[in-house]
What we know:
Blueprint: H1 9-36, H2 47-50, E1 61-65, H3 69-84, E2 88-93, H4 96-105, H5 107-112, E3 115-119, H6 125-135, E4 139-143, H7 149-157, E5 162-167, H8 171-179, H9 182-187, E6 193-196, H10 199-207, E7 213-215, H11 227-239, E8 247-253, H12 258-275, E9 281-286, H13 292-301, E10 306-308, H14 309-312, E11 328-330, H15 337-342, E12 346-349, H16 362-366, E13 371-373, H17 381-390, E14 393-395, H18 399-405, H19 416-425, H20 429-446
Parallel strand pairs: 1-2, 1-4, 2-3, 4-5, 5-6, 6-7, 8-9, 8-12, 9-11, 10-11, 12-13, 13-14
Helix pairs in contact: 3-4, 6-7, 12-18
Amino acid sequence: MSLPPFPSPRLRRAMLAYRAMWLLAMPLILGYLLWRARRDRLYAAHIGHRFGLHRGRGARHVWVHAVSLGELRSAVPLIRALLAQGEHVVTTHFTPAGLREARRLFASEIGNGTLSACYVPFDDIRAFRRFFRAFRPKYGLVMEVEFWPGMIMAARRLGVPLLLCNGQYPTRTFERDRTRHPLRGELVRGFAGVMVKSERQAARFRDLGQSNVAITGEMRFEQPVPTAQTEAAGPVRRWLGAQDRPVITIASAIEGEDALYARVIAETLAAHDAAGVARPFFVYVPRAPERFDAVADILSDAGLRLARRSAVLDERLAARGAAAQVDVFLGDSMGEMYFYLAMADRVIVGGGFHPKGAHNVSEPLALRKPVLVGPHIWTIEYPAVEAIEAGVLKTLEDGDALARALAPGADWQVPDDRIERFFRAHSGAVDKTLAALPDLLQGSTRG
Length: 447
């Protein structure tokens, strides 16, 4: 069945309204950035980037859009591979966390001029025209699930092939766009091509009319694991007195879950005391840094003894003084997730006990840790479905089920070789992505 021309008249009209909305909302958007800057001054820095204002570069760049910290981390192996091929790269981000991490990871490349890291322009064709004029992108790679209407339409109109990379279309979003928001679904055809994680995901993009599709796997499985963090985990675990106790890391806990986790931790400790067996030790890592103090209060109010990473460890993850006897180690830092995961015997990934959906399970699986998660896995359908089938991830329907899973005698063991087999079966995404790019770019010119 032949598809109507892209964009449809209806989408053209919608984009006119969208551009007008951006213009009218600009004072509010700038005010929001200034408001967020009260806690993180980088929100208000480099405002010119938001309007696409940059000095012109001599070389043409490959553009990688990684909206925030998680997307950047998944893109790091690909960015390094592109740099190794001699490409100049520009990365764009919306959040200070993503920008700050890009500048840290690629400091030497920024210094020698082979990589630039900046804020993404506001979602308007005029801002993107300035950005494209400065960096002259060969093509753009949008990481994960970011569908920015202005970005897609500007790239298409100004001749920059824009491809979705490491992409997926979560079930709820797909059903919504296919039935209730067809214009958003139509935007899928605006990409020059898409590279997705599985055949299940590829079928969804094809269903919405995107025919230029390649299956490239999960790039998050190839994130570099910082050895300094994993090597520090054992000594810190011993220093905290948890070397002979099961350690459970609750990673990326989101707002709305903290009370549930605090209750389950308290119940689990009490159950182990009643059974006369060693109580587990918990590592608790909130999703957002602005919540660190609030989470500390919630855990303390639940009667849990707490040690904060910022108070007891230095910048090299070395202990300060003697350890106090605590129940929970609060991970109130950014960029050290592998340290907290490496301490664990099992990992509970946050978000799954909230309708917003679970967060990344790839990092604990990369460290060969079995994973527990709540029922809302629609945001991580890949690789969650495959991990469940492989027996390396378990979903639990509510807090009571989580408490039962952590009760004395309920230890869920997963053989290391089972996780290793799963990991090998789903790796290699960077090589697959680089191999797919030429055909996808050629296919976009035919389309």
